[in-house]
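Data availability (excerpt). The following record was deposited with the supplementary files.
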Amino acid sequence: MKNEILVIDDNADIRFLICNILKEKEYRVRSAANFDQAQLEIEKKLPDLAIIDIKLDKGDKDGIDLLKKIIKIDKSVPIIMISGHANVKLAVEAIRLGAYEFIEKPFSTEKIVNYVKRGLESSKLKKEKDTIESKLFYSFELIGKSLEISKIKKLINKLALTDSRVLISGPTGSGKELVARKIHKNSSRSNAPFIVLNSSLLHEKKYERQLFGEEFDDGTISNGFLEMANKGTLLLDEVSEIPLETQANILRVLIDQKFKRVNGSSYINVNIRIISSSSKNLSTLVSEGKFREDFYHRLKVVPIEIPSLSSRTEDIPLLINYFKKKLAEINGVSEINIDTSNDNLYTYNWPGNVRELRNLIERISILSVNEKSIDTNKLINDILSENNVDEVREDIIKKAMSYPLKEAREEFEKKYLLNQIKKNHGNISKTADHIGMERSALHRKLKSLGIKDLN
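Predicted structure:
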């Protein structure tokens, strides 16, 4: 369905001009000549985007009042304010109140079309992001009763009372972004944006533009992450991947709370809470000269260390019961039965941590649809066994590339057998039966590989 735009201007010629420009671009267009007409159109149906003249028919109510009205109903609707009597104070006030952009008359066809296109794209991305967040994060809780997780929960509650910068460390998949979102949600900034900058996914040459935004020759503007996060929280995810030069520029923003867009001439003032996360040891990177020491200390006001799942196995049954219920609700499927006493759940290494456990539960719930007799225990064992073999294979391949053939074969056999013995809880007879060897032959193989003291 085509996007619908509401054009509000008391000048009939300008209103006619804007409407025709937008209709030529195949948008659906409604229009209003004054505050009362606009109010009726808004109450009838909110548009996907609104273009509002600030000064309307010299009445008591003007475009700023309409801006406030639409924002109050739905702040995701992008609003472009226009004026023939523009001044900096008026433009700043409109943006502060929630306008997407401010245009001074006269304006070119290209400019109005670009602003409308960008406004609609921004709104679409925000709605998609909000849907994903609500599904994947705001609906999820930080689950666990282990000492480490209990401490983190208490710390999150304390951080709600401050605007302190936080550095969250932990292995991949341990829940760093979830903790950051919980800090934001519990804080006084909860109604303001939560913006994630995934530092590992950006091209090095695009950092400045993505962070600070850019001003173009035609007068249009592309907002960066810092501007989008104003009054809210910015998560610098995998902060170790930010180039050293950009680290210096962000450090300046942390100190001054202002910056210039790329190709911009004026400063943008911002009020942002910075949360950073890293799966790498930043202290080590600092000592190696790969991360700025002053930037590191600015970020690490309050450190949070999230443990790996394998180090807090007492939380596994709680996580399983929580995920199977939540994922059934999200995916619209029946809740599956899982035996949380399955030993493999606790002996498995969980290299992907909580994310891997959640993916396992989701995979099983999907495979179990319309399969009443499915053995979820066997399914778990098969998947974990498959993952274990993949993990061992990947580790061995990395090492084996530098080994002679004989040593590479021995290294693989050693890793493989230790993994199988671990799965069978140290029972040599069961292990021999599982891998298709005689018990005595397995003993000899273990001895030849130097594997001792298995109990």
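Summary of structural features: The longest strand covers residues 273-278.
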